């Protein structure tokens, strides 16, 4: 096995417990865009959100709202506000053992990056709530010049920023098929799905995960 220089970890569902927060925030956001729960379109939209879990939220809203950029931006802002309020109200907990895992990896000389499909402001709200600023070597969110999952950009941005010598020395872990697709597209040697989030083992296997783990806590043993 190639020595791992960098581990790229997803946040919600992988290192941070989701506990339905994305669905709650989406429900508020799509209502702000004119689609309340009573609307006949709501159920199909919710299914799409679940199917695309892990992807950039603005991209998801663009797809749901037929490319109406103004409406998609409005929904995305409402999502950020709703999710941020849930986090500020204390609805944000780490996956058990996640913090210790990150510290253990770094103590072994492995660099760690935290990535998300949320906007940078939402990511920062989570880091604030958990006291995780500085826990990882770097954090990345979709933005200008960096596409969200399933594109490889988040992983490659981490590799560039942290001066990794070879993409084959990267391990990626996440709880969705989009996380898996991102890691594979980036050329990582290890692309692990974890079962603490939205996807089940068959979905992660079908996406091409090299390994499926019960939790991110199992990752150091896999790399040793």
TrEMBL record:
Q: Name one GO cellular component term.
A: cytosol
Query: Gene3D superfamilies recorded for this chain?
Result: HAD superfamily/HAD-like
The record's Pfam families line, in alphabetical order, gives: Hydrolase
One of the GO biological process terms: DNA repair
Stored SUPFAM superfamilies = HAD-like (SSF56784)
**GO MF annotations, alphabetized:** phosphoglycolate phosphatase activity
> What is this protein identified as?
Haloacid dehalogenase
Please report the organism this UniProt entry assigns to the protein.
Amycolatopsis azurea DSM 43854
């Amino acid at each position: 096995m190639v020595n791992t220089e960098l581990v790229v970890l997803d946040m919600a569902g992988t290192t941070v417990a989701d506990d339905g927060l994305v669905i709650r925030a989406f429900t508020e956001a799509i209502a702000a865009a004119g689609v309340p729960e009573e609307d006949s379109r709501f159920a199909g939209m919710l299914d799409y959100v679940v199917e695309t879990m892990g992807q950039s939220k603005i991209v998801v809203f663009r797809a749901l709202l037929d490319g109406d950029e103004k409406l998609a931006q409005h929904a995305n802002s409402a999502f950020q506000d709703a999710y941020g309020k849930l986090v500020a109200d204390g609805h944000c907990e780490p996956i058990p053992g996640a913090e210790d895992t990150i510290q253990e990896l770094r103590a072994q000389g492995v660099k760690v990056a935290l990535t998300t499909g949320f906007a940078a402001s939402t990511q920062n709200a989570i880091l604030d709530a958990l006291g995780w600023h500085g826990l990882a070597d770097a954090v990345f969110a979709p933005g200008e010049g960096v596409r969200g999952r399933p594109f490889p950009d988040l992983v490659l941005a981490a590799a560039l920023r942290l001066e990794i010598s070879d993409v084959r020395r990267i391990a990626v872990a996440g709880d969705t098929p989009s996380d898996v697709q991102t890691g594979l597209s980036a050329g990582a040697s290890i692309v692990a799905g974890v079962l603490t989030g939205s996807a089940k083992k068959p979905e992660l296997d079908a996406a091409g995960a090299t390994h499926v783990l019960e939790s991110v806590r199992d990752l150091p043993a896999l790399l040793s």
